[in-house]
Design brief:
The chain is α/β, with parallel strands linked by helices. The strands form three sheets. It has an eight-stranded parallel β-sheet with strand order 1-10-7-6-5-4-3-2. It has a two-stranded antiparallel ribbon with strand order 8-9. Helix 6 links the parallel strand 3 and strand 4.
Length: about 350
């Protein structure tokens, strides 16, 4: 699919080296023991995305902690910044403002560190799920029109673009239909702003290797590869150990660069708190193995990953020239659950 770009710096950099994303925003913010006052009052308490307005220095502190250890890409603090999930805090009318503020903050810091270190740094506009599952028959979870979903993602993407991101990142996706809506919404935002950026789409698989509603990795790749995206991958849910097989599949079969941004292991419940058990050293070793064995082009950390996790990963990858990818694949046909090759 021929696409035009007004900024393809991220894709150009990917051709030269493996790019490393930052680590966990949520768990890093938790470590700051923020109060309701930091969040702008009781009604916004716990809304991490609103901190870019109410207490931007808390978000800046997290961004800097990852830039300091040498990551290439910062994610904006906008995982939930769409009008559906922000209704919980009655912030649905401030979507543009929140996304622009988050992107502007990340942009300022990446530019500062790029100038200081000579290492190009990039901003990924983070777009998480809406909480709806349009593929299900559940009357509450599927209670949304597909066109409305598209517009929800379009609105968020426009704010991120206006704030100056280098790419748009669809992440932690549970429902393949919602991913399609997000990609379509982003393309609409491109037309509207006349800014055309790379798109990275990441799905989340459980320990059985399927998305929440049963879509396997073969189907995910078949459905998304032709939708005008630039990088495909996995993030969140499990640690690297449960991603081995799907990552091997993507590395061998995707003509697009592949990303892998796992949690620091499967979370354990310790006194009602989620604890991520995977230490920095084994995390970095697993990710290095994915890069060198399975052609992975983008790595980073999701929930529970600290600057130490990323520091070790950056150091390991410093000497690595970057992966090669399959130039062509056989045609595949997919249902919502699985795909078959068209080879007779």
């Amino acid at each position: 699919m021929n696409r035009k770009y007004t900024n393809r710096r991220y894709l150009d950099a990917l051709e030269k080296k493996v790019l490393v994303f930052d680590g966990a925003m949520g768990t890093s913010l938790q470590n700051q023991n923020l109060t309701a006052e930091d969040f702008g009052g009781e009604q916004y308490n716990g809304c991490n995305d609103y901190l870019v307005i109410s207490r931007p220095e808390a978000v800046e502190k997290v961004h800097r902690s990852f830039l300091e250890v040498g990551v290439d890409v910062l994610e904006t603090d906008t995982f939930r910044s769409n009008r559906l999930t922000m209704q919980e805090y009655k912030l649905q009318d401030r979507i543009a403002e929140i996304n622009i503020a988050a992107a502007t903050l990340a942009r300022k810091l990446t530019d500062e560190y790029a100038a200081k270190t000579g290492q190009p740094r990039f901003v990924a506009g983070s777009m998480g799920p809406t909480g709806k599952l349009p593929s299900t028959t559940d009357p509450e979870l599927s209670n949304i029109a597909y066109d409305e979903l598209i517009d929800i993602f379009r609105e968020q993407a426009v704010g991120l673009i206006q704030g100056g991101v280098d790419l748009l990142l669809i992440e932690t996706s549970q429902d393949i239909l919602e991913v399609k809506a997000a990609i379509t919404g982003i393309h609409k935002a491109f037309s509207e702003t006349n800014v055309y950026l790379p798109i990275q789409a990441q799905v989340t698989l459980d320990t059985t290797g399927r998305m929440l509603l049963g879509t396997d990795i073969n189907a995910s790749l078949t459905i998304l590869e032709g939708m005008g995206i630039d990088v495909i991958g996995l993030n969140c849910s499990t640690g690297p150990e449960h991603m081995r097989e799907p990552i091997r599949f993507l590395g061998e079969n995707s003509t697009l660069p592949v990303s892998c941004i796992p949690n620091a292991g499967l979370p354990l419940n310790v006194d009602g708190q989620a604890v991520y058990p995977l230490e920095p050293e084994p995390f970095a070793n697993d990710m290095y193995e994915f890069v060198t064995k399975h052609n992975i082009s983008v790595v980073g950390g999701c929930c529970g990953t600290t600057p130490t996790h990323l520091k070790l990963l950056v150091e390991k990858l410093n000497q690595y020239p970057g992966p090669s990818r399959p130039s062509s694949t056989v045609g595949r046909l997919s249902s919502a659950m699985s795909a078959i090759t068209m080879r007779q």
